[in-house]
From TrEMBL:
It comes from Microbacterium hydrocarbonoxydans. SUPFAM superfamilies: FAD/NAD(P)-binding domain (SSF51905). One of its GO terms (molecular function) is (S)-2-hydroxyglutarate dehydrogenase activity. The lineage of its organism: Bacteria, Bacillati, Actinomycetota, Actinomycetes, Micrococcales. This is Probable malate:quinone oxidoreductase. InterPro entries: FAD/NAD-bd_sf, MQO. Pathway: Carbohydrate metabolism; tricarboxylic acid cycle; oxaloacetate from (S)-malate (quinone route): step 1/1. The gene is mqo.
Length: 490
């Protein structure tokens, strides 16, 4: 007899862990099984060394508030991202209170978020951005300075041996965070497995087929021994990073037609030199290079993993045809279908700057990469920094009625019309907004159950259904409460 369950989660990252936890809290009687093709969870994009660990709240990321010619700066996108991160903070706080998560310092730490720019044009833009954001309740406490003495107090490494007369400016929000999504993923899965959820590592899903009774027949095999097997599920979530596209294509749902992905890898410079690390406690973002994708915005970051602090700078783009770090060299070719070929070709024709940028990045040696770091940190020494490989990001390409095809730098949930299967495509701000992404998925895929879940969701997320930025008092109360629970008061 083929095993039948309520939910199958494909992929052992933060998305599956978050959805699994939500469903277990809302519907503890449901039988859930999670599959991960590697030997452990959080080994791809959720691994702490495969991402920058930024708690993305639009406090320092300029791409969430781009400058448009002749138009005033619009904070809507930045506010939206911040609202989403607040939901994640509230959910994590509730799980800490319930004993689901360990001590907050094991996965989140207070780390000021800064933006640092040079040149008159960027300084003028940053000041305008500050003037707009300081009026937004969720950005209360944002600071701005063009004074080298002030910026030196915030982040000394930015100012040492800085050239005199050079225009520069910085903003700072003390309430920023550094998040170890690997630790968070492990803790969520540890709780799920201790509560009866089955986690099957070293198991690879090969195909999915819709059955006449509305369930999905999932064929999988063990990666050791290659033993085949099957399982049936009422609902399937594909949280397999870059491989989500491949699995959704195999499912045959029409909603995936026209989609493709473009893989972009990354590397970071890392130092554990205690003298250097001690002088920098912040995540400092700047402007992206011309033609560079938003995910390649340079930043100098404090990282705290397993209680040890280090600094990372990057990312430097790399290219591999693989959709995952542990993917296949045939990934980029095997995704091609008649329905997505034209959109992908249109993206290639429309983004020559991206190709030029990637080629330039690939030609950089270690010295040139440290030279890039020196625009942030003039005193950087080559020997203090080593290069580490980060994760693969699969950027969404899809049909566009006007352009034929577009490259999208965000995350997108693709689901079947009947809500029986859904998958997540795309990258940043992904992990930081996993909770609101999964809440939207629940509403879309479980329309009958969702109304009955809302009271429990308000227990988990106290401001569920409300917009904090429209209520300054509630915003202040909520952020103060989660900061206290998570131990992230500056």
């Amino acid at each position: 007899m083929t095993e039948t369950v309520d939910v199958v989660l494909i992929g052992g990252g933060i998305m599956s862990a978050t959805l699994g936890t939500l469903l277990h809290e809302l519907q503890p009687d449901w039988k859930i099984v999670a599959f991960e093709r590697l030997s452990d969870v959080a080994q791809e994009s959720s691994n702490p060394w495969n991402n920058a660990g930024t708690g993305h709240a639009a406090l320092c990321e300029l791409n969430y508030m781009p400058q448009q010619k002749g138009a005033p700066l619009d904070p809507a996108k930045a506010v939206s991202i911040n609202e989403q991160f607040q939901q994640s903070r509230q959910f994590w706080s509730s799980l800490v209170d319930r004993g689901v998560l360990d001590a907050p310092s094991t996965f989140i730490n207070a780390t000021p978020h800064m933006t640092f720019v040079r040149g008159e044009k960027d300084v003028a833009y940053l000041k305008d951005r500050y003037e707009v954001l300081k009026k937004q309740p969720l950005f209360a406490g944002i600071e701005y300075s063009e004074d080298s003495r002030v910026i030196n107090k915030w982040a000394p490494l930015l100012m040492q041996q800085r050239r005199k007369g050079e225009p520069f400016a910085a903003t700072r929000v003390p309430a920023g965070t550094d998040v170890d999504f690997g630790a968070l993923t492990h803790q969520l899965f540890d709780h799920l497995t201790s509560s009866g959820v089955a986690l099957r590592t070293n198991h690879e899903v090969k195909s999915l087929k819709k059955q006449k009774d509305g369930t999905w027949l999932i064929n999988y095999r063990t990666t050791i021994g290659r033993t085949p097997n099957q399982i049936k599920a009422r609902f399937v979530f594909v949280g397999a990073g870059g491989w989500a596209l491949k699995l959704l294509q195999r499912s045959g749902i029409p909603e995936i037609k026209g989609y493709g992905v473009f893989p972009i890898g990354g590397q970071f410079l890392k130092t554990t030199n205690p003298k250097v690390v001690a002088q920098h406690k912040a995540k400092v973002y700047s402007q992206a290079s011309v033609g560079a994708p938003p995910m390649s915005v340079p930043h100098l970051d404090t990282r705290v993993v397993d209680g040890e602090a280090s600094l990372m700078f990057g990312p430097f783009a790399t290219f591999s045809p693989k959709f995952l770090k542990n993917g296949s060299m045939l990934d980029i070719v095997s995704q091609v279908r008649t329905h997505n070929l034209w959109p992908m070709l249109r993206v290639a024709f429309a983004n020559p700057d991206l190709i030029t940028y990637l080629v330039g990045e690939l030609l950089k040696n270690h010295k040139k990469k440290v030279d890039s770091l020196r625009t942030f940190m003039p005193t950087a020494k080559d020997e203090d920094w080593t290069l580490i490989d980060a994760g693969q990001r699969a950027q969404v390409m899809k049909k566009d009625p006007k352009k034929g095809g577009i490259l999208q730098f965000g995350t997108e949930v693709v689901s079947a019309a009947d809500g029986s299967i859904a998958g997540l495509l795309g990258a940043s701000p992904g992990a930081s907004t996993a909770v609101p992404i999964m809440l939207d998925l629940l509403k879309k895929c479980f329309p009958e159950e969702y109304p009955g879940w809302e009271s429990e969701l308000r227990e988990l997320i106290p401001t569920f259904g409300e917009q904090l930025n429209k209520n300054p008092e509630l915003a202040a109360t909520s952020t103060a409460s989660t900061a206290a629970t998570l131990g992230i008061n500056e």
